[in-house]
Each structure stands twice: as structure tokens, then as C-alpha cells.
Amino acid sequence: MNRAAPGLLALLLCATALAAPGLQVDYYEVEGDDIQALRRALAERGPVGDDGVRYHGYTRWQVGWTYRLAHRGPRCVLQSHATRVEGRMTLPRWNPPQDAADGLVREWEAYSAALREHEDGHYAIGSAAAAEIRRRLGGLRGTVGCDALEQAIGETAEAVLDEFRARERAYDRDTGHGASQGARL
Predict the structure, then answer these.
(1) How confident is the model over 135-184, as pLDDT tens digits?
(2) In whole angstroms, what is the distance from residue 178 CA to residue 169 CA?
(3) Fewer Cβ in 10 A, N or C end of the chain?
(4) What total number of domains does the chain contain?
(5) Which domain holds residue 116?
(6) Where do the H-state alpha helices sit in 20-145?
(7) What percent of the chain has pLDDT over 70?
């Protein structure tokens, strides 16, 4: 049996996690020596989403924004702004028993990589939301009074978040929560 491949996969997953600033990856353990036992463990131990449903993997992201306003005569203008995205991804981890069938190990590796790809897609949506907020805030024009500009900033950012939350729901619907990407065990 070749046990180098699971170690290589773990190393690649860690490198991917390090490459995504603001993303924390947590793991939950699953056990089993056949596909049915692994499926049961995933169904029993997977993270619970915001909708109350248990999934094999789950990613939550939050976008924050900061800004500085300045007075230019009677007008208030957006002098500077920035956004940030932070996320937490939860994925399963299986340490195969010594006697695990090579086919089962390969199937897990393919499934695990596809699940990670799907969850990375969720985080990418959050990152795109941050970029879109940054872009739209840059297009705001000054107003009379800073209260009106602060309100416009908040409304603009919240509208973007609503759009990207809808994109995230469509992503799950279109991929069958990753099944069409191979995240099916």
C-alpha cells in the first residue's frame, strides 16, 4: 500500500490554506474502514450550517470595511476605504486504518480534494464580495453632511453582501453542494 499520497495531499491542503489570507481551516475526525462507515461519520459529525443542516464541509465568511471621511467645503467625501474578508472552513479528516483498501483511500483522497475545492469556492465568493464593496465604495460621491455619506456606505456594502449571499446559495444549488465537483462519497 502506498501511504505517501495521503501525506502529500495533506501537505497540499495545508499549503492551500496558507495561501488564503484570512482563512482558518478546522478539521473534524471521521473513522471507518469502509465507505458506509465513513458516510455515517460524515453525516453524524459534519458541521451544522447557518440553515441548521449538517454538511460534510462548511465555510463561513465575513466581510468588513473601514473608511475615512473628510470635509471638502460643505461636502463630505470618502477620503479612503478598505475591506477585509475572514473565513472559517470546516472539513473532515480521516486517518485510514493500516488495513484500509487502496481503493477506499483513493476514493477518500479524491472526495476530500473535491470537497476542499468546493469550500474554497465559498471563500472565493466572500473574497469577491470584499472586492466588489471596495470597488463600489470607490464610486461614491461626496454628499452634504457626513451622515448621508455614512448611510450610503452602509447601504452600498449591505446591498453587495446580499448579492453575494445569493450567489453563494446559487453556487450550492448549481453544484449540488459540491456533488457535481466530485465532492460525493
Answers:
(1) 999 999 888 889 999 999 999 999 999 999 999 999 999 999 999 999 99
(2) 12
(3) N
(4) 1
(5) 4-181
(6) 35-45, 102-138
(7) 90
